[in-house]
């Protein structure tokens, strides 16, 4: 596959939509739908998320990753929640990173915080809770606009899944160290002195709200250039990227695309990214919404619960196209 061309990923300006002037909101909703259909990823600016909250979250993350190895390991191994190094999931996937994977449920977080930040677990949980509330609101706003743009009868049909007190959403902090120590054996000729930090995959949930420091690394697969190509997504610490996940692809009967992406390491600078993965409750039934099914566009996926999907995804490799298990055709 050809590596890294550049592409104009759509930029959605949410300031205009907060005027709530019906027509403007309609237009932005349509743009969001178009971006999610064509690329499965878009950038959001004027998002309304407080930057002091973002900065505090990043600081706490960096504080943690700067601890001595033995201290960090007290928050691991990831089962799947917790601190992990290189190993991803349970089936042998490896990446060039360290990470903290957290459940966004405040009581699960408070419990885990005791092993992450012994000196002040309350302050750690407070910062994470604050960040999660902000990015969840942004995720819900995007979902409401998607519902509007798609013409769903109930515009909260999607966001209610993340607002449910039993939602299964996660927060992940990924730290990719620089890749100076690349040996010849490890080198991928297409990647120069970079390495695969997190291998190709789609995100399983409804959507992901991603923010990174100013270090590049995120790439998506696109077929915009006649054949599949890896395209780099430039970092922007002031903005968020929204990535469409498998559950939204299933609920929209394949109309919105859960984009395949990966992260490569940067030879000069370390990358820190923070992802909120918006997921439904375990018992929620996921199926193509009636508005998305028609004689021209027959139903593509059978119904499944999020719990069922999650079990399947943990039994499979990272890059597996897990939605295929639920396809009807
Ligand atoms: C990919 C997206 C999220 O980072 C994640 C990952 C999860 C994990 O690291 O525990 C998975 C991966 C992700 C999909 C397939 C399974 C599960 C690792 C893996 C091999 C937290 C998620 O929800 O799914």
Write down the secondary-structure element order. EEHHEHHEEHHHEEEEEEHEEEEH
Number of helices: 9
Largest sheet: 8 strands, mixed
Low-pLDDT runs of 5+ residues are none
EC number: 1.14.11.13
Organism: Dioscorea alata (Purple yam)
Protein name: Gibberellin 2-oxidase protein
Enzyme class: oxidoreductase
Describe the structure concisely.
Its EC number is 1.14.11.13. The protein is an alpha+beta fold and 329 residues long.
Please characterize this protein's 3D structure.
This protein is of the alpha+beta class and 329 residues long. The protein is 31% helix and 24% strand. It is built from 9 helices and 15 strands. It has helices at 14-17, 22-38, 51-65, 69-72, 106-116, 121-150, 159-163, 246-251, 306-314, and strands spanning 2-5, 11-13, 41-45, 82-88, 93-103, 170-176, 196-201, 207-212, 218-222, 229-232, 240-244, 261-264, 271-278, 285-286, 304-305. It has an 8-stranded mixed sheet. Strand 9 (218-222) and strand 10 form a beta hairpin. Helix 3 (51-65) packs across helix 6 (121-150) and helix 5 (106-116) crosses helix 6 (121-150). The longest helix is centred in the middle third of the chain and has 30 residues, at 121-150. It binds gibberellin A4. Residues 80, 88-89, 91, 93, 101, 170, 172, 201, 203-204, 277, 313-314, 318 line the site of gibberellin A4.
């Amino acid at each position: 596959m050809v590596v890294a061309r550049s592409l104009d990923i759509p930029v959605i300006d949410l300031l205009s939509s907060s005027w709530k002037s019906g027509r403007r909101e309609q237009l932005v909703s349509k743009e969001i739908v178009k971006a999610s259909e064509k690329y499965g990823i878009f950038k959001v600016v004027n998002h309304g998320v407080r930057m002091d909250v973002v900065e505090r979250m990043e600081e706490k993350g960096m504080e943690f990753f700067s601890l001595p190895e033995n201290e960090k390991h007290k928050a691991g191994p990831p089962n799947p929640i917790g601190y992990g190094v290189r190993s991803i999931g349970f089936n042998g996937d490896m990446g060039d990173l360290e990470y903290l994977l957290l459940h966004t449920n405040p009581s699960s977080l408070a419990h885990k915080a005791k092993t992450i930040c012994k000196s002040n677990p309350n302050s750690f949980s407070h910062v994470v809770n604050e960040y999660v509330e902000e990015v969840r609101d942004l995720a819900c706003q995007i979902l409401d606009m998607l519902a509007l743009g798609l013409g769903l009868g109930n515009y909260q049909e999607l966001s209610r899944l993340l607002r449910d007190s039993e939602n299964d959403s996660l927060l992940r902090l990924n730290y990719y160290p620089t890749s100076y120590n690349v040996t010849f054996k490890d080198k991928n000729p297409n990647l120069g002195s970079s390495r695969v930090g997190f291998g190709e995959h789609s995100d399983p949930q409804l959507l992901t709200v991603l923010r990174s420091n100013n270090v590049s690394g995120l790439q998506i697969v696109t077929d915009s250039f006649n054949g599949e190509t890896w395209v780099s997504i430039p970092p922007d610490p002031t903005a968020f990227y929204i990535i469409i996940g498998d559950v939204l692809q299933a609920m929209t009967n394949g109309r919105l695309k859960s984009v395949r992406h990966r992260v490569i390491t940067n030879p000069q600078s370390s990358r820190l990214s923070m992802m909120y993965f918006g997921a439904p409750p375990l018992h929620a039934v996921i199926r193509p919404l009636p508005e998305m099914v028609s004689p021209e566009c027959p139903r593509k996926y059978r119904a499944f619960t999020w719990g069922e999907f999650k079990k399947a995804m943990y039994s499979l490799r990272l890059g597996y196209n897990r939605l295929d298990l639920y396809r009807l055709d």
